[in-house]
Inverse folding.
């Protein structure tokens, strides 16, 4: 399947004059009263998620996907986009099924899945070993089973344009440890993981309460177009009294905006980068070099098998250089020799780029890693343009590109 440009498609939809994203301004009670829609975080999070359903469904329809919502509350993701061909063939994979092997090859990570698909371009059905409710069995799974796209909606508010933005990106203790835990389909069956991040300000001096006495402020229709409160629009609208203002939307892949710390107040939550700049989110200026590094960092963060590991990138690189990891079993063993890390100053395809980490005292330290082949996600980025020289590179086809 062709790559789904979800970020471009979403921004195109929310700026469309004919199909805008809408938010509720009021709610009706069963007694016929009308109340101003509440602006608390939980209510707004639900409102934005509901508003995103229709727009994501339109994108899915346009690019040949079917939108599937989770079967249980708090399952990941909010929307699982499944290729329409699979919907027509009927998926045999169920939520909570754990994918162990494709053919005779065991699959430890998403990279293993992509390698198998790439090496078997003409194979439409694979005999797979799965684990379901403690029992193992073989199932013929269609190629499209492994080409799903995950979309999660995250919201946060800030008090001023200089206030830092930070999202909670989900749990680090569920499907990153067990690929079928609290997730709609096995984690390895998703080619991409997108975040719709919505930032807003609560309206000050907003009229609330029973709107039956305030009909001049709450006339029909019951919803407000999101494009009337996007950007820096601060003025009140004579016809509407929306619960929020200064709404901004960012769409990017999860690993590109993830940070190295947990969310405040919840040590099991992965936090995004923290910055007042929306551009840093839109450009994906996160701390990880690849989605694989993101997954490995958060899988073994803080402790593993009751042993302390690391709580920062600097500690992670040191820990990883002294550790051997079996991704399938999760077994971690110390190496007999410490690996030597080499500094690289060139930004060449196939090599990591030297970056800086900031420690708890605010001091910058170089981060460097040994060269290795780029993952499909990384290659898809550099294939468009060589970031060092601005030179176009040939686009290599991957199953998730």
């Amino acid at each position: 399947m062709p790559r789904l440009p979800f970020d471009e498609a979403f921004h195109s939809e929310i700026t469309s004059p004919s199909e805008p994203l809408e938010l509720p301004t009021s709610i009706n009670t069963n007694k016929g009263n009308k109340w101003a829609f509440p602006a608390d975080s939980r209510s707004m999070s639900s409102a934005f998620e509901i508003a995103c359903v229709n727009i994501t469904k339109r994108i899915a329809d346009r690019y040949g996907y079917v939108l599937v919502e989770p079967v249980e509350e708090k399952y990941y993701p909010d929307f699982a986009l499944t290729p329409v061909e699979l919907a027509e063939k009927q998926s045999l994979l169920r939520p909570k099924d754990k994918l162990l092997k494709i053919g005779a090859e065991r699959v430890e990570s998403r990279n293993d899945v992509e390698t198998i698909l790439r090496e078997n371009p003409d194979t439409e059905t694979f005999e797979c070993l799965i684990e379901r409710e403690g029992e193992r069995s073989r199932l013929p799974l269609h190629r499209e089973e492994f080409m799903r796209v995950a979309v999660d909606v995250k919201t946060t508010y800030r008090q001023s344009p200089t206030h830092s933005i930070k999202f909670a990106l989900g749990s680090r203790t569920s499907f990153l440890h067990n690929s079928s835990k609290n997730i709609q389909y096995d984690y390895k069956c998703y080619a991409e993981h997108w975040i719709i991040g919505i930032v807003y300000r609560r309206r000050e001096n907003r009229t609330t309460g029973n709107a039956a006495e305030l009909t001049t402020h709450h006339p029909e229709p019951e919803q407000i177009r999101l494009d009337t409160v996007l950007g820096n629009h601060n003025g009140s609208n004579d016809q509407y009294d929306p619960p929020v203002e200064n709404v901004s939307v960012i769409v990017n892949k999860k690993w590109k905006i993830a940070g190295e710390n947990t969310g405040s107040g919840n040590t099991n939550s992965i936090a995004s980068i923290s910055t007042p700049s929306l551009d840093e989110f839109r450009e994906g200026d996160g701390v990880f070099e690849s989605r694989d590094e993101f997954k490995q960092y958060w899988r073994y963060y803080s402790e593993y098998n009751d042993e302390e590991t690391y709580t920062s990138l600097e500690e992670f690189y040191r820990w990883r250089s002294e550790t051997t990891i079996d991704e399938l079993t999760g077994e971690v063993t110390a190496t007999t020799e410490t690996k030597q890390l080499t500094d690289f100053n060139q930004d060449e395809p196939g090599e990591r780029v030297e970056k800086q980490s900031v420690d708890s005292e605010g001091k910058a330290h170089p981060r460097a890693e040994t060269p290795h082949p780029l993952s499909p996600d990384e290659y898809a980025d550099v294939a468009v343009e060589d970031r060092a020289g601005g030179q176009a590179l040939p686009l290599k086809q991957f199953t998730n590109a």
Remarks:
- The radius of gyration is 23 Å.
- The chain has nine helices and 22 strands.
- Residues 262 and 270 are 5 Å apart (CA to CA).
